Amino acid sequence: MTLLLSNEDVDRLLSMRECIDALAIAYRDLASGRGTDRRRSDSFVAGPVEGSLYSLKSMDGIAPAFGVGAVRIDSDVVTWPTRAGNARREKLAAAGGRFVGLVLLFSIATGEPLAIFPDGYLQRLRVGATNGLAADRLARRDARIVGLLGSGWQAGGQVMALCSVRRVERIRCYSTSREHREAFAAEWSERLGVAVEPVASPEAAVRGADVVLCATNTIDHVFFERWVEPGMHLSSIKRPEIEPAAIERADVIVIHARDASPIHVVAAGVDVPEAREGKGWKLLGEIDFTTLPQLHDVVAGTVPGRTRDDQVTCFLNNIGRGYQFAAAGGALYRKAKAAGAGRELPTEWFTQDVHP
Amino acid sequence: MTLLLSNEDVDRLLSMRECIDALAIAYRDLASGRGTDRRRSDSFVAGPVEGSLYSLKSMDGIAPAFGVGAVRIDSDVVTWPTRAGNARREKLAAAGGRFVGLVLLFSIATGEPLAIFPDGYLQRLRVGATNGLAADRLARRDARIVGLLGSGWQAGGQVMALCSVRRVERIRCYSTSREHREAFAAEWSERLGVAVEPVASPEAAVRGADVVLCATNTIDHVFFERWVEPGMHLSSIKRPEIEPAAIERADVIVIHARDASPIHVVAAGVDVPEAREGKGWKLLGEIDFTTLPQLHDVVAGTVPGRTRDDQVTCFLNNIGRGYQFAAAGGALYRKAKAAGAGRELPTEWFTQDVHP
Prior knowledge:
Chain A is built from ten helices and 20 strands. By secondary structure, chain A is α/β, with parallel strands linked by helices.
């Protein structure tokens, strides 16, 4: 049977700690070349409403440690509005008020489709877990104070992950919408059992912080060099969040993946802000994304992480990897099977008797 | 609702002629840049049995003329045995005696998943339709005699397609297995209403043929320069089938796509015959795949096809495109909706209320 899981199943079955542990196992495999993944691709054509584009995004990877291959697909109507002076990328809930993102898991022993589930919760888990794993290797052991920029979906994943790897005592949250940051603080104080405090400026969030978590939807800079302090760990989930001069202040810079530019496939006459960057994906200011150490090498121990308390460290989650969906999805699948969770669909629906 | 279709639905709903017509519409769009697709990727890790590999293949594309984006995924255990002196690529029926290939169709207006179906029948239709569309532009108008090399799954698609674009009178079929070619001849004589004759040598199949269809699983050459005759159209579904010297004899050479090498992602210690070729994908002997005319330009009329009866023409279906699954899949979906075909699955299974 092929398991159909819901976001609620994912939320109930796989903890952030388990996701971080799964990534740690899988990234050691990746460092030794046993796991593989294929670069993300983003294809665009004109969208259904003025200023919108239709985007078909896909990535895939194989994690032998978990016995699975995964394909993740996002099918979205996207817009790029400006809010509070920052250009943002926003998906429309065009699918009857809903969004479309799917993960399909396949067995590497038989090829069979093992599971199908929406990508939303796992997406947050794997982004959080990635930055959490990096923070575990790069942030000071005694990090207690967190400055958070952003209060959306990914911001929650980031604080969950950091609280899984450090004894966090206080989180100061800034985002451009007062309403959003206050709601975020209320929700996550309760969920984490840690004081989350909404603050009125980014400076108030990051001043004196041991760890700065950028978790926004912006495609502009949100953290600046003048805010860097000795011993800080800087963490980002989107390439442009931290200005290049701030990154250059770091003693240790680690990125997620070197081969970092998505394959952009854009129809004629369609203008896509992030595709415009072109070769810019390889460079951010003077920072060359083709030579920096990668997270899996730090996890495997072949590249050192933080070595002194006064160092500034920086992790740039510069692109998502299909491999993460294989690793985290494989861990999820094991837990789902053990728990008897999900809806069983006949595997015959998704297999065939011909050899194409 | 999201439609779950079977191979039988595909077979019943979409004729080869309709598939060729859909590709013709979509390829005109492709020539003008309105449609897009992303290069195929093949990822490999060690397989479950000695000499096998697990392969996760994916491709995707968006065909605005049909309002859909498509992702095609194949999850296979693959081996490379040698049969009758030729190295072949063979998939094992490891999924409980079945194979795993899926197409997912998405609406470009809403992002919604419109349909899910196995790829086998559409795969054959789209490969056949591609070579059929090429033959329609390149073979002589009065072509009647066909030499077929191969008797497998794709060979059927090739003769179906050619019979849709030319008044074929006789098909001579050679394949290394006598049993297979005889069974093929019996089956397809009846299905096509055209005499299909099994012959004991490749020469007997191709001598005097107006059109030579190569439709094998080989990764070696099967058609040679010494067999080329004036006025012939040569057609191939796999890059190495026609030896380079034979291709060079053609007055008009058209390929499917210039950006032709799949993205090969191969785990450490894993040897993949076709990935070994590396840059070889760009060259076959002296033939440079980066500069030859592409099928969509011939379909759009921006590049001429055959202009004289005595010309030798050659179409190399050098790689499959995700775009074909969007075009043919979009045409299939329209017919399925009109016929009320397929099993309706709740679209909510494949959508979500969060914004990842």
